[in-house]
Amino acid sequence: MRPMEQGLPAGEPAHREPILDVVGISQCFVHNGAAAAVLDHLTLRLFKGELVCLIGRSGCGKSTLLKIVAGFLAPTQGHCLLAGQTITRPGPDRCVVFQEDALFPWLTVRENIAFGLSGWKMSAQAQALEVDRYLDLVGLQGYGDYLPRALSGGMKQRVALARVLILSPAILLMDEPFGALDAQTRDDMQDLLLDLARERRQTILFVTHDVQEAVTIADRVLMMDREAGGIGEELQIELDRPRNRTSEPFQMYCAQLHQWLRK
Amino acid sequence: MGTKNTALALLIPLIALTSWYGVSATGLVPVYLLPHPATVGEAGLRYIFGATGQGPYAGRFLGDLGASLIRVLLGFSLAAALGIPLGILSGRLALVNRLVASAIGGLRAVPGICWLPLAMIWFGIGIKTTVFLVAMAAFFPIYQNALTGAQLVAPIYYQAGAMLGVSRLRGVFAILLPMAMPNIITGLRLGMGISWAYLVLGELTGVPNGLGAVIMDARMLGQTDMILVGIILIAVIGRGCDRLLLFMMRLCFKSARRQV
What we know:
The structure holds two protein chains of two kinds. By secondary structure, chain A is α/β, with parallel strands linked by helices. Chain A has seven helices and ten strands. A six-stranded mixed beta sheet of chain A has the order 6-7-8-3-9-10, sandwiched between helices. Residues about 1-10 of chain A have low confidence and may be disordered. By secondary structure, chain B is mainly α. Chain B is built from eleven helices and no strands. The longest helix of chain B has about 35 residues, at about 170-205. The radius of gyration of chain B is 22 Å and the shape is globular. In chain B, about 35% of the residues are buried. At the A-B interface, strand 6 of A face helix 7, helix 8 and helix 11 of B.
């Protein structure tokens, strides 16, 4: 059993408000008749407004952890608390931006963004205004009536971001959301995400296998490791924002993560 | 639809018609095998617009069309009303699929024409037999395509729906059906096509009216021109029904309008 404190950053200021607690999560899959543990008593705490990246080789369980927090997957053991409430199923307080395009193909950009609002008590006019606001926020003014198939990969991810941000989730879960984009678009999307996150004090748990991306986005990088059954290493990124991707300290953080990944 | 598209759509029928004229002009084929297109055209006009009494089939068209349309629509609706829900359920719930797959697969292996004798014993000669045959035949493509459509919906869309606050029940209408819509429409179109085939089979049993009945009647009287009139009319009406079905689906469902 790992100590509870393992997931806590060193020198945590007293005023920080915990938002997500992952408590002793284990996840086993049956493979060739034998149970294989991907996560082994993993414990983790995220604070409000914190940007945390999970990084690791494929198969290390980073996506599994995200699915458990999202409520798509029930852990074999342990539980997750969001603002003190146990997570039992998916919900709008923990929205996911997926790597692949998961927009509804028969709905326009506007209708996709408004999808999560359909159960809300909100006048059509108020809803339209709100959708307009989020179209602006993600830089898609004028694209409201397009269908997803007419959009580029980057624009689709902007819609995916808008349709979850409009619900003001307590935590935003991102599963390699920019992994399929070209390098320039990826940088643009990272900048957009960071702008939005700062304005809204948005808590984000971000899965990536890209070291540069992790150092650009994260306050804290958690290196996941199959052998350790969870979080192997932890790195605070103490760089001022906006971060310069070509600066020497930035590169040093990248080098450190690369070294851990190669071990 | 520009004039160019219309011209393109008419190209093959025009070629067929021209070849038919050419073959008839040579006089090599006896007219009892293949009547001249003009003869068939006249028979068709008499059948559609003629006053009753001008000939054995004059002016019967509207009555036959009405009788046939009702049989097709009843049989097709019955097939759709059973096929879509059952297909969707089988595609989503492994238990339902295991329960019905072999029964439905077995029934499907039976050629539709084998049901004819049984249907005649059960329902007698008339509308019920035809509706039964049409429904039997149209059910399988509608069911199978709805099933495939439901199976093809990637889990990520249900996950996306669930995180956006869609309950499982509402997800059926908000996510599953719209996602499966292209396949459902393919099934309905195939079902509609086969409905016309089995309509004629059902009407061959000696009912007094209907487009299939006219064809059968004309064969007994040796009126090849009327057989051809019936065939051409069924082709035109069948095509019209297909377009109408697509138009209605697009009119009623956003997911059809934007995906098909």
